[in-house]
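can u do me a favor
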């Protein structure tokens, strides 16, 4: 007879599975990742994997959902922290985009990650987009301007740039949407991106 796990242990196992699955999807791609790969990386049986998730698509969607959702609340907090509008918008972009992009930068199959998600669940992807938009509206205070900023931000990724290039592009975009302090950039450089 198997031992019943506590809610904390179940939550920990779920996180371990999602982390393992994200690694597999980013390194092998969606099509080449198998449930066996995920189970092996999470150090669980494939049967146990099926107890937690319906299929590979379900795992992928929940990986993406957890990954994006985990960034929205820190971005909202960053947008509410003291500082100029430019500094707050930069921090929001850092939490929502740059932290995520830096994690994906080294993964061989990162380019397909978001594309697969949008193909599998466009409505859920749209809801995530709404969460990102809410973070930007909080800083820019004008929904129409925030919408244009988000569209411009999304366009910066069309050619799948390297981290340093996307950092520079976002810096320029933030500067253009927050013309304060005489128009000079107050966004931190890539070297002092930690804040």
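np, heres the sequence
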């Amino acid at each position: 007879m198997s031992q019943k796990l506590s809610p904390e242990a179940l939550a920990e196992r779920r996180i371990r599975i999602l982390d393992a699955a994200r690694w597999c999807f980013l390194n092998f791609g969606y099509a080449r990742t198998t449930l066996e790969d995920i189970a092996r990386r999470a150090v669980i049986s494939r049967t146990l994997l099926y107890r937690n998730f319906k299929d590979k698509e379900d795992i992928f969607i929940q990986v993406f959902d957890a990954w994006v959702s985990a960034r929205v609340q820190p971005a909202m907090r960053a947008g509410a922290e003291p500082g100029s509008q430019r500094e707050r918008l930069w921090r929001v972009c850092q939490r929502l985009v740059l932290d995520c992009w830096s994690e994906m930068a080294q993964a061989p199959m990162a380019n397909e990650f978001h594309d697969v998600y949008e193909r599998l669940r466009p409505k859920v992807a749209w809801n995530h987009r709404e969460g990102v938009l809410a973070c930007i509206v909080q800083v820019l205070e004008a929904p129409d301007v925030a919408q244009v900023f988000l569209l411009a931000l999304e366009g910066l990724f069309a050619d799948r740039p390297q981290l340093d290039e996307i950092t520079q592009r976002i810096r320029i975009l933030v500067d253009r949407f927050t013309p304060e302090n005489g128009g000079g950039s107050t966004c931190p450089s890539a070297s002092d991106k930690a804040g």
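Residues 182-186, 189-195 have pLDDT under 50 and may be disordered. hope that helps!!
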